[in-house]
Structure formats: structure tokens, C-alpha cells
Amino acid sequence: MEEIVNRVAKSPLVSIDLDEFIHKGESRIFDLKDVLFQGLILKEKDFRDFIKTNDWAPYEDKNVGLICSSDAIVPIWAYMLLASTLRDYANSVVFGDENEIEKCRIDQAIEKCVNSSDFENAKVVIKGCGAVENKEYAYTQLTNALLPKVSSLMYGEPCSTVPIFKKKK
Asked: Which pTM does this prediction carry?
């Protein structure tokens, strides 16, 4: 009887499963309208007092989106102040809704994943299955990050891939 050889395991292919790198913490939206005077006006003194006295623990290790759902004109520094405060608690802080939070989580995962020397001139397969939301954004960004490093890029599973890119010799 011939021995069964796992050619995929012996191949030089490097597989990436983006799911393994995405922060699993939950997301929260911080709506500035809740701290505005009458839902419309930002009073600097009151806002700074809120920043100092608010319990930020519920944002611990969360992915936070900053929005203002009222028609108030909010100065840019207010978002900056919130971001600088939440930085000590949250995993990430972005301006925007759940979609922007998800993009940030994807960008963080790509940065973690691609900053390895394992990809220099490697043959890379990006796994296509998984629970990544906003797949089009994720795989486009991952492709952009990998192209300068890899010798070839494929999509799918190591046993069945779709060629995407091959570096010219």
C-alpha cells in the first residue's frame, strides 16, 4: 500500500485566515448628543467635567464609534478629547458607526497579520471562508498590504486556489 502524502502540508504555501487576527471584543457607539446641553449645544466646561467624572469602565476593551445623532455642530476638539480619553480603555476608537468600527477592526487585523517577515517572497493563500464582516473591504485591504511583499497571492483553500497575483521575474 502506498503511503498517503499530504502535499498541502508539505507545500511552501503560507495560509492567512483573517479571522484569527480580528479583535473579538464587542462594539459600542458613543453618541455625543447624550452629553450636549438640551441635545444641541456643547458647553466646554460641562463637557470637560463629564470627561473627568464619567465611568469609562464599560468601554474597556471595546471597539468604540463616536457619533452625534443630533443636528448639533460639534467642534472637532470634542471628538479628539473623547478619543484621547477612551484610548486608555477601548481597543479602538473611530469616528463613525458600526461599519467604520468594523473597518478599523479589519485594518488592525491586517496590520498584525502582515507585519511579519513570513510573507517576504512567499506564496500566500488568503482563506476565503470565515466570519469576517465587510469581506470586500477586508480582502481588498489585505491584498493591498500583501502585494509589495509576496511572490504570489491566491484566494481560497490551499487545495483549491484562485490565482490573484504573481510577481514578475
From this structure: 0.82
